[in-house]
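User: Structure tokens for both sequences below?

Assistant:
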Amino acid sequence: MTPAEILDSLFPGGHDVTTDGDLLFGRAPFGGGIVHVVGATGGAPIGIDQAIRLSAAVLEIASSDDGAPILFLVDSASQRMSRRDELLGLSEYLAHLAKSLLLAEANGHRTIGLLYGGSAAGAFIATALACGTLVALPGAHPEVMDLASMARVTKLPIEVLEAKAKTTPVFAPGLDNLVRVGGIAAVWDARASLADQLQAVLDAPRAGDDRAALGADRGGRPNAARIAGAVATAAQG
């Protein structure tokens, strides 16, 4: 689906979401209130210029008292790995964006990421994965790190990583694997009303980060929730 088709299905009553290059900003009436919308679209990389603009928009919403949710549409490449962006502190800009989303959530604005295309590496972590709830549309293709890059970083032969990816979702890119590890809460039905599916997400109570528990239930990350629980118990004395 295109961003226009997604927005029309989400907000059949209309919206004022506009594009600015590869970014989206705006809001729409929804369920008697409003939903704020930001987006990184077009499969474009996220550099410092995009990250700081998205952060500013999220922080402005976080400082408001409307308590309205933020819907973050994501179809990006990885972070922009240009010499300029790296020298100017790209990792700090991405961390700032992720922390802006966490602040918005802490201030009472639900943050829902909607992954409808690609996203990878730091760009994926700072946008979609930094939202309180992440859902996806069929055909989305996320990857925390592609196997070729992982081979260069770990110095392991790519054949070894390909073999591990077949049995361990943590190693593997792709929508199904991110669902199995709990990173993606649900895959929406593109043929049904996206407005109804967004309303269902907003109606569901949310208490903390349930991704590790989802990963355990789905068999993709069997030990993370148990270990995190043991650490939390030990820390409490």
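Moving on to the next sequence.
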Amino acid sequence: MTTSSQGDLPSPVVSPVLRAPQRPLRRLREGWPAYLFVLPSVVLMAYFSYVPAYTAITRAFTDWDGLNVPTFTGLENFQRALTDPVMGQAALNAGIWVVLGLLLAVIPPLLIAELIFNLRGERRQYAWRSLFVVPIVVPSLVLLLMWGTFFRSDGLINTVLSSVGLGAWRHDWLSDPSTALYSLIFLGFPYVDVFFLLLLYSGLQNIGTEVFEAGKIDGATGWRRVLYLDLPLLKPQLGLIVLLSIIGNVQYFISPLVLTSGGPGYATTVPALLMYNTATRNGEYGYAMAIAVLLMLVVIVLTGASRLIGRERS
């Protein structure tokens, strides 16, 4: 006669529905040391990140010079921004900047990451990777000023054009309204953002060798491997780059501020620079805050759309 011992009996299965919910107070009591260590970071982040955003939103509905008590004006600042022709020109410039900046943020780092990844030998990969990383120690302002000299009528670009027989293309790149904006966008050859490069390179490294071997058997070599193997597996990294590029380009205004001050005319004015000039030169902080709120809304909409498109494709 066989008998079943206690150890042979199956353990009772507890339905998730019947499981008692873990109350917030209980979780807080059990994990209070972790919450205590995180608390200073949360407080500092709230003060330095969320308080300025709250201030911008509340001041956007006021007439405020940055010093005196603001006066509530309702939607007047937003109506002004949406009907301001200068703001319209700035928004158009920003749209061009975002589209072209997105291409520059993705294509050059991806090409360089692929080239470095396909080099034979880790030492060579490390050397070429370092070659692109080292320039980040140079202050960006120095690079901007150097490129400003390149764009002058007697600068490097015109000198090179003359030396290769293209003297008819010589231009005063930053003084001509038709070329000033594109000169600023395409400033910084070879357009390899180090952070994006390392992100894509690490993504390639995380692809298993067995995946490459299987792809090679199926004929996925060279550009076919990049198109049908690497790009699909790099979607998380590419999605993050698209997100950061949109946010960065919508809010960017440093090179127009340093090299052209938004000119000639308003040819290189972008909303962030208009916001800066409105606040610091005109003292219209309320109107500047309204532009800032509109920028925040644009960033939220564009990032949400990019995430939605990426999710549908995946």
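User: Anything stand out in the second?

Assistant: The radius of gyration is 27 Å.
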